[in-house]
């Protein structure tokens, strides 16, 4: 519904006589809060679980859409459609990402399939919106959208908690907010994640601009109102195909995800700049297909790359944090482009703005890719040095996003090393006892099992937190700012 707002956008400008920038705040607030509400959604998922958050979100969308039919001023839609429905979209989206990742821990394809719903809606929503506006007006259209949104309550209620997991691990179990602070420190200690937030935010700054401006631009240049919906439909159809293909490619490890992500943004930058010169329906239709492809790949791989960088266990908080930054840029993108279009009295310069931010994002993504490749080479060299010095039989098992997962075999036991942000996570088993050492950003921490009890030590930014689960029990010790907490039974 967010990406298909372009049809309603033109109608609201006509009905209320508002500027492009002023009206642009409506979809921007909605799409911004869809992502920007991520951190709050992360906390809610931890406290009440994915099912409860999804149901609450669907209700919020329906309430916001219903209230939108009663507004008498475009600014009131900022609250009803932008904020109330936007928050609901954010709750539904985030809970779905976490739920799917929890149930399909080993499937990267599942995460990309999850994102197909957005382009799939573009196959029907533009046509239905056009028909509804002609038949029932824009107020009746919002009421019908509210009814459709209410079906999300049923879908959310079908979410189920994971089986065969301890209460402490279940996504339905309340946890202390103190652990959230620890998670945030952990993910922000990973420099690649910070850079990923930066470059993907440039992508989201321009993401919604073509979906909103291009249909209006096509109508202004004489494309029939019956043909305009086919532009976004082409984006939806090619978006589905692109997401599926990208999911298969990534699942099979055929292409580096960062490289694919950056390339998609670069193609989007070139095509969007070219679209400013289009005037025929056929050219707009071609651009619609390209738009669906590059935005489809960009959106589908966000959660996949997040997992690659921070790990599955940190996805909930990391993706929520990433969504927060994206929410800010989503909110600002369309109004900025609309303001540029108002000042220049044409949609073309608004598209140039989107093209520019796509290009900046792609350059940063390529820089991150090169950096991680260099780290991988350095790590491979270090592995060979350890092999020679220690006489270890090292076997390289996997290469993931430029980082290495290395399996060691010593005296019949397996030792696993992970590179996190250019550092090492090394697990050694010696005489039945485990020693786990983590190097994050150059700092080392050790953990030892002596006579049965377990402790795992992490050093994050010079502070210590200790947490491990064994047979369903959580011995947790934390030292934060010099304060120790005990280990509960």
Give a written overview of the molecule.
This protein is α+β, with helices and mostly antiparallel strands and 489 residues long. It contains 14 helices and ten strands. The chain has helices spanning 6-16, 20-36, 38-68, 76-103, 108-114, 117-121, 125-157, 178-188, 191-220, 228-251, 257-275, 281-310, 315-344, 348-390, and strands spanning 393-400, 403-410, 413-420, 423-430, 433-440, 443-448, 457-460, 463-467, 476-480, 483-485. The strands form two sheets. Strands 1-2-3-4-5-6 form a six-stranded antiparallel sheet, with helices on both faces. Strands 7-8-9-10 form a four-stranded antiparallel sheet. A hairpin with a 2-residue loop joins strand 4 (423-430) and strand 5. Helix 4 runs antiparallel to helix 5. The longest helix is centred in the C-terminal third of the chain and has 43 residues, at 348-390. It is globular and about 75 Å long.
Radius of gyration: 24 Å
- Widest sheet: strand ordering: 1-2-3-4-5-6
Shape: globular
User: Alpha-carbon distance between the termini?
Assistant: 48 Å
Which H/E pattern describes the elements?
HHHHHHHHHHHHHHEEEEEEEEEE
Major β-sheet, in short?
6 strands, antiparallel
Descriptive labels:
489 residues, alpha+beta, 14 helices, 13% strand, disordered C terminus
Brief characterization of the structure:
With 489 residues, this protein is an alpha+beta fold. The protein contains 14 helices and ten strands.
């Amino acid at each position: 519904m967010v990406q298909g707002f372009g049809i309603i956008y033109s109608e609201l400008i006509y009905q209320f006589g508002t500027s492009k920038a002023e009206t642009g705040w409506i979809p921007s607030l909605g799409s911004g809060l869809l992502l920007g509400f991520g951190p709050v959604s992360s906390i809610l998922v931890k406290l009440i679980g994915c099912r409860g958050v999804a149901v609450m979100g669907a209700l919020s969308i329906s309430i916001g859409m219903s209230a939108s039919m009663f507004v008498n001023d475009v600014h009131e839609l900022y609250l009803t459609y932008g904020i109330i429905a936007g928050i609901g979209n954010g709750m539904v989206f985030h809970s779905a990402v976490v739920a799917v990742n929890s149930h399909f821990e080993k499937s990267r394809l599942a995460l990309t399939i999850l994102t197909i719903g957005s382009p799939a809606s573009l196959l029907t929503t533009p046509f239905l919106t056009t028909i509804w506006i002609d038949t029932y007006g824009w107020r009746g259209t919002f009421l019908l959208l509210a009814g459709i949104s209410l079906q999300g309550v049923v879908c959310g209620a079908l979410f189920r908690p994971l089986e065969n997991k301890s209460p402490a691990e279940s996504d339905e179990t309340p946890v202390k907010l103190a652990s959230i602070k620890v998670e945030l420190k952990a993910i922000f200690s990973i420099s690649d994640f910070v850079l990923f937030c930066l470059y993907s935010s440039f992508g989201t700054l321009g993401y919604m601009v073509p979906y909103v401006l291009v249909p209006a631009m096509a109508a202004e240049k004489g494309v029939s109102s019956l043909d305009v919906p086919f532009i976004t439909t082409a984006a939806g159809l090619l978006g589905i195909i692109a997401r599926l293909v990208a999911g298969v490619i990534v699942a099979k490890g055929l292409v580096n995800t960062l490289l694919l992500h950056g390339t998609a943004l670069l193609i989007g930058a070139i095509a969007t700049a070219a679209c400013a010169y289009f005037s025929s329906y056929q050219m707009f239709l071609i651009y619609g297909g390209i738009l669906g492809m590059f935005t489809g790949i960009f959106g589908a791989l966000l959660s996949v790359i997040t997992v690659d960088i921070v790990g599955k266990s940190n996805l909930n908080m990391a993706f929520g944090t990433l969504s927060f930054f994206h929410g800010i840029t989503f909110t600002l993108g369309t109004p900025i482009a609309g303001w540029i279009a108002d000042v220049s009295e044409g949609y073309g310069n608004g598209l140039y703005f989107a093209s520019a931010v796509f290009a900046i994002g792609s350059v940063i993504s390529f820089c991150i890719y090169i950096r991680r490749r260099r780290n991988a080479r350095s790590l491979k060299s270090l592995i060979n040095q350890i092999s020679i010095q220690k006489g270890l039989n090292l076997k390289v098992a996997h290469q993931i996003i430029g980082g290495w997962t290395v399996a060691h075999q010593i005296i019949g036991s397996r030792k696993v090393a992970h590179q996190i942000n250019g550092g090492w996570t090394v697990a050694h088993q010696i005489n039945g006892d485990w020693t786990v050492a983590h190097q994050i950003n150059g700092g080392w921490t050790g953990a030892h099992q002596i006579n049965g009890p377990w402790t795992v030590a992490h050093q994050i930014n010079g502070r210590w937190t200790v947490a491990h689960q064994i047979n369903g029990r959580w011995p947790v010790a934390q030292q934060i700012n010099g304060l120790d907490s005990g280990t509960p039974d």
